[in-house]
Amino acid sequence: MPRLPVAISLGDLSLTLAAVGLGLVAGAIVLALGGADPLRGVADILLSFIYYPEIFLVRSSILVMTALAFAIPLRMGFFNIGAEGQLYAGAAAALVAALTLPYTPLPALVAAAVAGGLMGLFAGLLRVKLNINEVLSTIMLNWIAFWSLRYIVVEYLADPVYSHLTLEVPLEARIPWIPSELLPPPLQEHLRSGFPMIVFVSLATALAAWTVIYKTVPGLRYRFAGANEYAAASRGVAVGRVKLASMAAAGVLAGLGGALLILGHSYRIDSTLSGLFGYGFEGIGVALIGRNNPLGIVAASLFVGDLASGSERIQVTARIPAELADVVNGAIIFTVAALSGLRYTGIPRRLSSIAGRLG
């Protein structure tokens, strides 16, 4: 069996950087078509984390979780499009647990992990046992989770004063922020609301995922089964169990992402779920940009999180509507993710072969 790389190779890094460059060009073109200064717009996007650090840090943290939820099953040949619904389930479970046991964030985190994990496991069972395509099942489960949560929010968890919002997470059940006065002086000016602790949780999760995948025996079995499931089965690896475990782990991670968002940032869910929407789908692009490597995903999450804060920034500096700002972000992410995903098609290898023959 060929040795699987622990880190992203130099070639992968070069392709990713090239994809990022072309993605920014695509964003600049959209800005120019919208009548804005493309160079200033791109610069504002890249430096937006300075002006909107809270948006940058929170969004990047949640994207780490949903990107891992896509990347881990992908090695097993599963396209988990369900991180969105698994995040909804985790957010709902975390809120209910926090309102029921408002003493510490731990019960809410456990409830979120269980809720998301069960959704992921269910989709995995449908694929492994009944051969039902996971793309279809997870998309349907996303909608089931979306409308179920909206019903629960409106009917059972609504705040009697602000009916479009749920009851608020009690103070004791929240994941705290580090007060700005405890931060180093250079950060105090930019992080006036403090530093969100969920950043450390997401980084620790990514590091733990990397360690398990590349430094443990279960991780070796997982990589072996992903590289060649028939060879792995012949060596005694229970491939079916590994597949189910990958989908369950994905659900746990996405569910925890929902919990981190509710316990560490918003503390409520709105009736339209606008505060939760999109993290799961964006995580797919982040995973592709990060080459499905947990450490690469952290870097990719920072990039896409910066784009999110950049969307807010260019609405002010370039005086463009929010819709156009979202188009700019979409053009950048689509271009980068599409080019980053080229390696899975074998096209770069074929081009290298053709160039070698011509040379």
TrEMBL record:
InterPro entries: ABC_transp_permease (IPR001851). It is found in: Cell membrane. Its main location: membrane. Keywords: Cell membrane, Membrane, Transmembrane, Transmembrane helix. The chain crosses the membrane at residues 12-36, 56-74, 86-103, 109-128, 135-153, 194-214, 244-267, 327-345. CDD domains: TM_PBP1_transp_TpRbsC_like. It is a multi-pass membrane protein. It holds the Pfam family BPD_transp_2. GO terms for molecular function: transmembrane transporter activity. GO terms for cellular component: plasma membrane. PANTHER family: ABC TRANSPORTER, PERMEASE PROTEIN (PTHR47089), GUANOSINE ABC TRANSPORTER PERMEASE PROTEIN NUPP (PTHR47089:SF1). This is ABC transporter, permease protein. It comes from Aeropyrum pernix (strain ATCC 700893 / DSM 11879 / JCM 9820 / NBRC 100138 / K1).
